[in-house]
Amino acid sequence: xxxxxxATLVVAxxxxxxxxxxxxxxxxxxxxxxxxxxxSTALGDPNDPASIAYFNQTIGDTVHFTVDSSELGExxxxxxxxxxxxxxxxxxxxxxxxxxADERGTREYNVALGAxxxxxxxxxxxxxxxxxxxxxxxxYGKERPxxxxxxxxxxxxxxxxxxxxxx
Length: 167
Known about the structure:
It is a single chain. The protein has one domain (3-166): CATH 3.30.1330.60. Helix 3 packs across helix 4 (107-127). By secondary structure, the protein is α+β, with helices and mostly antiparallel strands. The chain is built from five helices and four strands; from the N terminus they run ααβαβαβαβ.
């Protein structure tokens, strides 16, 4: 293979790699948004109060935390109470609570912090009547940021717990 052919192949590979979207496109949800990687068409009609799409868009699937904390603020408690009401009205669904952290701190520390955040949401929802058997938790620590930058707005957005609803 001559130098021109090799250079052309490298440029083509780089161009194709630049087109890759690791988030799966705007019609996907999950650790990068709500729904666990399920195409939005599988989430149901957002106008149907019993659909996952309604939960994600109307109830809200995300609560935020302050720095280095798993304590639920007033706004987080309001969202979680609303989630609990919806979950209690729709017992056919179970949830996965994803705990997340911002990029600061070690991987190990942030995984533990994300686990505490997810556990705190689980405890709150259970106290509001959601059966513990319907709730699972996972921590992603800082590994799945929703915003990527070294600024306060990104850190604020990444300190969160996401409630992913599934059948």
